[in-house]
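U., I forgot to send this yesterday:
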Amino acid sequence: MLQVKDAVVRYGAITALHGISFEVEQGEIVTLLGANGAGKTTTLRMMSGLHAPVSGQILFENQDVTQTKAHQFSSLGISHVPEGRRIFPQMTVEENLEMGAFVRSGSYADDMAKMYSIFPILKDRRKQLGANLSGGEQQMLAIARALMAEPRLLLLDEPSMGLAPMIVETIFRIIGEIRDSGTTVFLVEQNAAQALRLADRGYVMENGRIVFTDTAQNLLHDERVRAVYLGESVEGA
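Result:
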């Protein structure tokens, strides 16, 4: 579905991504692991057109999208939920969802109803301003808004950040349901153990380079991954 080939991203004189290559197959959840500053968010921003690589190639469904502008990615079928949620705080829940459907033509009433069935709390809050939602509700709204564009590939950046454990469990359950409904997911997540329990495959990034990849289950039990990224949180996995 998506292939990244030898992609290099720079911020001025600083090279953030050093010729990375990876792929995402249709129907998968793929997770990208790494320490803070490894290049994970830059990778997502590159995949959604916010940072074009200076060299390399990005293919989405066999179409070269390397130099595609960020505002065109939703129309291609890629939605990005950024770190920090970035909802519209002075719009209601319903208005935020309508903004997610902005690139579409025709009625989206059925999809609005679907979002409310996936996230019942948003239906209860539909007339409330985004600024008045809890952190977990804002995260649900950010995901629902992205899904309103009918993406085939959903990019998620740290969806559990700052959320209570019970809400995290809900968010991860919903991510699994999103994949089961036919949307491919590429996930960057600070909770590496939880991400690997959910994902099909994973990549590990260090200093702007992908250093190894394997199935999620193999990574979950790999001694290098356990020592560096999982620590005691994986005991008993």
